[in-house]
Every structure is written in C-alpha cells, then in structure tokens.
Specification:
The chain has eight helices and eight strands. The chain has helices at 5-9, 11-20, 22-35, 53-56, 66-74, 109-119, 136-143, 159-168, and strands at 42-45, 60-62, 78-80, 94-100, 120-131, 171-179, 194-195, 202-209.
Length: 215
C-alpha cells in the first residue's frame, strides 16, 4: 500500500521543510543537476509537490498522493496517479527517470526498479537521490524514525545496497555524487557535489539501462 497518509495530511509542512532548509535543498538540487542530462521525455517517480521537478525542468511524473499531485498540477506539471511498482508508461518509451527522496517509500524496491527498467529506452538513465542510511544524517533519521511525521514508514538504503540492486535489475552505475556535509540545519550555503560517497549524507546515483540482467 502506498505510504501517502502523511503527505496528504501535511503538504504545507512538507514544502516548509525546503523553505527552512533552503541551502540544504539547493545543495541537493545542485547534486542532481550535475548528473541530469538535458533531454526531453524525463519523468519523476514520486514527484510530490514538484519541488524538485520544477527547477529541474521535468514536466511529468507520477505520485500516489492526491494532495501532492494537485500541488504539482498547479505548477503546470502533468502528474498521474500511480505507484513506482506499476508505472503507467509503455515499454521502452522513456528517456530517463529520477527518484529524489522517494526510493525509501516504495513497498517493493525490486519491483519498482524493474518497472523503471521496463519503461526506459535502452541506455536510458535512472537517477536516484537519497539520504544514505549509513551517513550522519541517515543515522539521525533512523534514530528518530518512529517520531518522524514523514519517515516513520520509510525504509532507508545504503549506497552499496542500491548499487547491488541496480546491478541485479540490469543497470550499470556510471556516476555517484554526494553533498550535505554535516547537519542539515547547519547548511548555510550551497555545498559542492563531490564524486563518490561515504562523506556526504545526500547521495545521487546515475545508472544506465543495460541489456544484461541477473534477475
């Protein structure tokens, strides 16, 4: 079942987080921009209110939350009611897909990544932006997970875990960036997006659809 209750009920609080933590948001946005090709036909899976999609120039996507979809539609984004495990797109019809802070909310990560593989054209790209569970911020989120308005039902992942899942589902990782060095609340300027992982709490993985699959 899609984890939408908190997002439907607290959309204002969701958007306000990005206002309060503006430079952390801009740092994450910059990290995604570093690896995002400027091509048409890109979707965002778990597009939310469109907070990332709008500055990234992404014009369509999916989200299971009605409140989030309506907010995104007000920004001119084409949003469909769907979940990551059952994407409403034809086989090999999409140039690229991004999932930013949404991979932790899917019910079945293998099914979700397999669906992305299905809808992507060969050599199409998937970009994952997420808080690494093994990072300082990730550990803090895990520690207070039960108290969190949005993350109490989330499943956090480590970068190496996602590498393994991507490989098994037929993707080849071609780039990894990291940002958010220190506590989120302490970020007072746009931080750099550095190659690799293990130092920054927000990680961006770019992977390409390959023909070889293990699953």
């Amino acid at each position: 079942m899609a984890k939408t209750t908190a997002f439907d009920a607290h959309i204002t609080e969701y958007d306000n987080w990005f206002v309060r933590n503006r430079f952390a948001f801009l740092s994450e946005l910059n990290a995604v921009k570093q690896v995002l090709p400027q091509v048409d036909g890109v979707i965002e899976i778990g597009i939310g209110s469109g907070i990332f999609a709008t500055p990234l120039g992404i014009q369509k996507g999916i989200d299971p939350s009605m409140a989030m979809r309506e907010k995104a539609k007000q920004k001119g984004i084409e949003v469909l009611d769907a979940v990551a495990e059952n994407l409403p797109y034809a086989d090999a019809s999409i140039n690229g897909a991004v999932m930013i802070t949404s991979i932790c909310f899917v019910d079945d990560i293998y099914q979700a990544i397999n669906e992305v593989y299905r809808v992507l054209k060969m050599n199409g790209f998937l970009i994952l932006g997420f808080v690494d569970k093994d990072s300082p911020v990730g550990k803090e989120y895990l520690k207070h997970k039960a108290e969190s308005m949005f993350y109490n039902d989330a499943v956090f992942w480590g970068t190496e875990e996602l590498y393994a899942i991507l490989e098994k589902t037929g993707f080849r990782v071609v780039d990894t960036r990291q940002t958010i060095f220190g506590k989120v609340q302490a970020v007072k300027e746009i931080q750099p997006a550095v190659k690799g992982f293990k130092k920054g709490s927000f990680v961006v993985i770019k992977a390409l659809k390959n023909s070889g699959r293990i699953l």
